[in-house]
Amino acid sequence: MKKSLLLYAFILALLFNVYTYMFLSKEVTFEQDRYKKVTKKLKDSLNSVKNKLVDANYFSLEKNENAQNYFESSNSGKIIQYEKLIPFVTEKLLDYNSNPNGNPYVGQDKIGANKFIINKVRIINHRWIIADFSDGEIWGEVLLKYFVNDDDSITFEVNQSLLYQK
Fold it and tell me: 86-102 pLDDT, tens per residue?
């Protein structure tokens, strides 16, 4: 009786160990497969976001080599680095927001009690800027021309402006 009890205990322990081994080995392969699937999905998502970012930045001075080359071969003979030009032009345009009547380069006169100020600026190429502006209630966009003068000053010119309806 004692031998049969030990035999049953041994067989039961052997079955338990085989079951545990099979379960754990399947779990490891399952987790590895799951990791591979999640990694692939994340890489695909990252590539998708990267492609969307490239598309979104297509119209920008940072990605437009022709516009960058304009500053290298300008008539004055001096080279303007676009990396420094972008924040410089943006800062100069935003400085006009301190005007009591609002930024004069939004292309709109003051409508209500609040003045129009430029909120966001995107330098498209060596000549154009698109900007978003508002007075807190009314929003609009403006297309500007900008010029880098020989004395390194920046001048702006409103090309077209629009207001969105409330």
Answer: 999 999 999 999 998 89
